Automatic annotation (TrEMBL):
<dbReference type="InterPro" id="IPR042183">
    <property type="entry name" value="MmgE/PrpD_sf_1"/>
</dbReference>
<comment type="similarity">
    <text>Belongs to the PrpD family.</text>
</comment>
<dbReference type="Pfam" id="PF03972">
    <property type="entry name" value="MmgE_PrpD_N"/>
</dbReference>
<feature type="domain" description="MmgE/PrpD N-terminal">
    <location>
        <begin position="20"/>
        <end position="262"/>
    </location>
</feature>
<dbReference type="InterPro" id="IPR005656">
    <property type="entry name" value="MmgE_PrpD"/>
</dbReference>
<dbReference type="InterPro" id="IPR036148">
    <property type="entry name" value="MmgE/PrpD_sf"/>
</dbReference>
<dbReference type="InterPro" id="IPR042188">
    <property type="entry name" value="MmgE/PrpD_sf_2"/>
</dbReference>
<protein>
    <submittedName>
        <fullName>MmgE/PrpD family protein</fullName>
    </submittedName>
</protein>
<dbReference type="InterPro" id="IPR045336">
    <property type="entry name" value="MmgE_PrpD_N"/>
</dbReference>
<feature type="domain" description="MmgE/PrpD C-terminal">
    <location>
        <begin position="284"/>
        <end position="470"/>
    </location>
</feature>
<dbReference type="InterPro" id="IPR045337">
    <property type="entry name" value="MmgE_PrpD_C"/>
</dbReference>
<dbReference type="Pfam" id="PF19305">
    <property type="entry name" value="MmgE_PrpD_C"/>
</dbReference>
């Protein structure tokens, strides 16, 4: 890997194009280096993972609305839409599928200087592959690039510190991945990356306070913008330059300002794109920083059942990293995180709620754990309001560690009981993490898909999709176009379709 210095330049400095970060990203995307077998296997895992969480979302409000919009933009050949056999224009298919993938907040993650769900790259890259007519090998290459660029940006440039939503790294990565998929030249990808970034910077109010359904739409919007940016760049249209380093650019006015300095890691020429191997998926449908806490709560449920009764508990204090404390903990100062009537989107960003329910139930379910009946249960509300988070400097340090063996997303919990005793335990990473108690492997991804598809998809369709996905690098153009999951007959037809402008 090479570390590329990035800073703001005055216009009169005339930063050469080849020294601009967007151009360096484009060079990585255009590099024809082979994809390793290990990366290919992980790409297959994540295609299965995305399909799993998408099919579980296709009957939910955001997925229904986004699919309805996409279906109002049919195209031939077009791209597949989760749940149906009708195809749509690729940018709209990317939109609908991106919403379905993100709705349950249940797919893969990478956390460093910034947050990200790199699997959000897959819907736009796959949509373009299906519309244009790419092979499975092309698709694997494109997805490997999307993951590489997003992870590299996330390692170096924080967005949330400046209240910019993390999808600002997704627009450029998806555009780069599409560039690789199509075998575009460096200059075209450069323009597409710049346009994709320019159109996807937004505030992170979508993840603050009362969290709305837009949380699921935000990454889908970035993917849609990436598809459109590539289309414009292929037609010869140019983008604001330099988009990152300009004196009126993203860094100068949205991020660390005119004195900012970053070092962005990117593969050298000829170096394999391996960043997907640094990412990790979710066993539970909740924000990633809650994954380890669900596992610890399940353990405490078994070993200390007395902690599940609010009558026995004086206080629950979760000592954790700064990020966890201020984003999904009590440090966010969002009263909604303690509100039994809060939206599902809000509850899955409330570690006090998540820890309480997992502690009492000894389990976590992507639907039942968020139901109004569950969040409103009196004993749960009583215990929930005894839970607080505190930042711990050591867990913050481990969160930011560059050493994979030390990097942690958990912390320590102290439960003070009414009899004066204290229960203390800790966890560093989720059980499903590569360094966790039960790292996810292919069988786990398949099991997750089967679980989430049950009742939504017929068994024959489940088997058909899995057989295709596991042969991904060998798929023909026609087989790539079949890389979709169709709902069982009658399921979607019974759901009212919202009408808008189209």
């Amino acid at each position: 890997m090479n570390l590329h210095p990035v800073r703001v330049h005055r216009s009169d400095e005339n930063l050469p194009r080849e020294d601009q970060l967007a151009h360096k990203i484009a060079r990585v995307a255009a590099d024809p280096v082979a994809v390793t077998d290990e990366v290919t296997e992980m790409v297959i895992n994540r295609v299965i993972d995305n399909a799993a969480v998408a099919v579980a979302s296709i009957t939910r409000g955001p997925g229904v609305a986004a699919r309805a919009q996409a279906l109002d933009h049919p195209a031939t050949p077009g791209a597949a839409i989760f749940g149906v056999t009708t195809t749509a224009s690729p940018e709209w298919a990317a939109w609908a599928n991106g919403v379905a993938v993100r709705e349950l907040d249940y797919h893969d993650t990478f956390l460093a200087a910034e947050y990200s769900h790199p699997g959000d790259n897959i819907p736009p890259i796959l949509a373009v592959a299906q519309h244009v007519g790419c092979t499975g090998a092309d698709l694997v290459r494109g997805i490997a690039t999307g993951y590489e660029i997003q992870v590299d940006l996330v390692k170096a440039i924080s967005l949330h510190e400046h209240k910019i939503d993390h999808v600002a790294h997704l627009g450029p990565s998806a555009a780069a991945g599409i560039g690789t998929l199509l075998g575009l030249d460096v200059d075209t990808i450069f323009q597409a990356v710049g346009q994709a970034l320019h159109t996807t910077t937004a505030t992170r109010q979508s993840r603050k306070g009362e969290i709305s359904t837009w949380k699921a739409h935000a990454p889908a919007f970035a993917g849609k913008m990436a598809v459109e940016a590539v289309d414009r760049a292929m037609r010869g249209q140019t983008s604001p330059t330099p988009i990152y380093e300009g004196e009126d650019g993203v860094i100068a006015w949205l991020l660390d300002g005119p004195d900012a300095r970053y070092e962005v890691p990117l593969p050298e020429d000829g170096e394999a794109k391996r960043a997907i191997l640094d990412t990790y998926t979710k066993e539970h449908s909740a924000e990633y920083q809650a994954q380890a806490w669900i596992d610890l709560a399940r353990k405490l449920n078994r070993e200390h059942p007395e902690t599940t009764d609010p009558a026995n508990v004086v206080s629950v204090t979760i000592h954790t990293s700064h990020h966890t404390h201020v984003v999904i903990g009590s440090g966010a100062n969002d009263p909604q995180k303690y509100d039994p009537t809060a939206s599902r989107e809000t509850l899955d960003h409330s570690i006090p709620y998540i820890f309480t329910v997992a502690l009492q139930d000894g389990a976590w379910h992507h639907v039942d754990s968020y139901s109004p009946e569950r969040s409103g249960r009196p004993d749960t509300v009583e215990l929930w309001r005894k839970v607080q988070t505190l930042e711990d400097a050591e867990w913050t340090r481990r969160y930011h560690s560059l050493d994979p063996a030390e990097k942690a997303f958990g912390g320590r919990v102290e439960i003070v009981l009414a009899d004066g005793s204290t229960v203390v335990d800790e966890i560093a990473v989720a059980d499903a993490h590569p360094l966790g108690a039960r790292p996810f492997a292919r069988a786990d991804y398949v099991r997750k898909f089967r679980m989430l598809a049950a009742g939504v998809v017929e068994e024959a369709e489940i088997e058909r999709f899995l057989a295709l996905a596991e042969r991904l690098p060998a798929l023909s153009v026609d087989e790539v176009r079949q890389l979709n999951v169709v709902a069982r007959p009658g399921l979607l037809e019974a759901i009212p379709t919202p009408k808008g402008l189209f």
